Amino acid sequence: NMPGGRSGAKAWVDGVANVWLIGGDGYPGSNSAAGSLNDLWKYTVSTGEWTWIGGSNLPNQNGVYGTKGVPSTTNIPGAREFMMYWTDATGNFWMFGGDGFPAVGSISVLNDLWRYNPTTNEWTWMHGANFTDDPGVYGTKGVASPSNVPGARHGSGAATDASGNLWLFGGYGNGPSASTGNLNDLWRYNIASNQWTWISGTNQLNQFGNYGTLSVTSSTNNPGGREFPMLWSDKSGNLWLFGGGGFAAASPQGHLNDFWKFNTASGNWTWMGGSTIVNQQGNYGSLNFPSTTNIPGGRFSSAGWTDQFGNLWLFGGTGYATAVVPGRLNDLFMYNTYTNEWTW
Q: Which end of the chain, C or N, has fewer beta carbons within 10 A?
């Protein structure tokens, strides 16, 4: 057994160290042309074996939503790529939006929220629409509501905080209307209440960032609209945001390397490093030596994770190294949140 070649898929690790993989855009198991996928796989590390768990071996499949809030073995999200994902404290997998297929019709941006229980092998449609291009319902900033929902989108930053809340930042898609663009809205989803809250940012498209003063927190600070940034959470409850493709302090649109911290208690952003100008080259310093002057170059679609010590890790993406021409990157950086230093 082996998943076909693909891009834009999502993967996670469960509580017993199995690796799970879903979707993306690529090759199914039917010798047909490439397309959007919704196949679900499990890789058992101890045996070195893949298991096809669910979804289709055909491309471009519509979703089976069932009844909102009701798990079922017949439910399955439609084929998609560039969706957002989280894992919760009980080992469930959560997935939101992306470019994909709804219950009926063709591919576009989605805002459906799904939960997968690997123990029961059941998907549950939890929130959002079962159709594409659904505008967001923002409600009142800071106030949760059953009617609130982020607009359909792909390429958002996603992270989970210490309390188990799911966080979503930006991406490309719908604000409160049918128009699409780069977003800079920050959302929090409470698993227990099944409610979204618009926390920060605007409900408008293609907004420039308001940087304020480096390392100074302010209620008026806000990152600009962007897609495919990296978002982490630390042990103190802060969110950290790096880069993406979008808007800095002014035009034009490009590759970002601005670095931000969001305090979830105060609800304020702090510009921590990087540039207010797009398409900046990286400052690498010396290999394995931390420095406050080091910074990765502008990029989007990086991989990232947090280690047991609370350090933030960033790998690759598409953007700038030390040359003036962007390309695919394989540099690995670590950021120490206590010393405010990047290490190549």
A: N
